[in-house]
Design brief:
The protein is α+β, with helices and mostly antiparallel strands. The chain is built from eight helices and four strands, in the order H-H-H-H-H-H-E-H-E-E-E-H. It has helices at about 1-20, 25-40, 45-50, 55-65, 70-85, 90-105, 120-135, 165-175, and strands spanning about 105-115, 135-145, 150-155, 160-165. A four-stranded mixed sheet has the order 2-1-3-4, with helices on both faces. A hairpin with a 2-residue loop joins strand 3 and strand 4 (about 160-165). It is elongated, with a radius of gyration of 21 Å.
Length: about 180
């Protein structure tokens, strides 16, 4: 709970700056670059997450690593996160920033779970239907789960549409037992 509240606060502040600068895509790209760098450089993520390492050392590492690669504003934002000892929330901050950016771009994410792989035409049709339903552009991700037996489960934000055969069988079973 605390993680999401902290992440939203920092992400929203940086999001507002990005909008003012009319550089939403640029700042999102820079945050993702920083995230990938933190994850790919051996032991860097552990170094940044270590509460025993002084903030000055962490900031020195960030400044050295990203000087000339990221904008001064993004580096300052990373330093602020370090100063406030919120490094452990960095991934959540990026995720929240991307949520704000997608909302501003009228984009929503959706997950479709099916029992078997869907044909590209079916994926396109589902994407069109979801776009028509929401009035937004939909980033669609598909996964396979044989446990659902057939049909689809669609997750968009906090909404779930369960049209799986497994769910229908469960409902039928409950009705028969009543």
């Amino acid at each position: 709970m605390l993680e999401s509240a902290v992440a939203r606060r920092y992400a929203f502040a940086f999001f507002e700056i990005a909008q003012e600068q009319k550089a939403l895509d640029k700042f999102e790209e820079e945050l993702v670059t920083a995230q990938k760098t933190f994850q790919s450089v051996e032991k860097l993520d552990k170094f940044l997450a270590n509460q025993l390492v002084p903030s000055t050392e962490k900031k020195k590492a960030v400044n050295t690593l990203f000087k000339g690669k990221l904008s001064e504003l993004t580096v300052n934002f990373l330093n602020l996160v370090i100063d406030k000892r919120r490094e452990e929330y960095f991934n959540a901050i990026i995720k929240e920033f991307q949520n704000y950016a997608n909302k501003a771009r009228n984009i929503t994410d959706a997950l479709v779970i099916s029992a078997k792989e869907l044909a590209k035409e079916d994926v396109d049709k589902i994407k069109q239907k979801l776009s028509a339903m929401t009035g937004k552009n939909v980033n669609l991700t598909t996964t396979i789960d044989p446990e659902i037996k057939g049909g689809l489960i669609v997750q968009m934000g906090d909404k779930i549409i369960d049209g799986s055969l497994a769910r229908r069988f469960e409902i039928m079973k409950q009705r028969l037992l009543q």
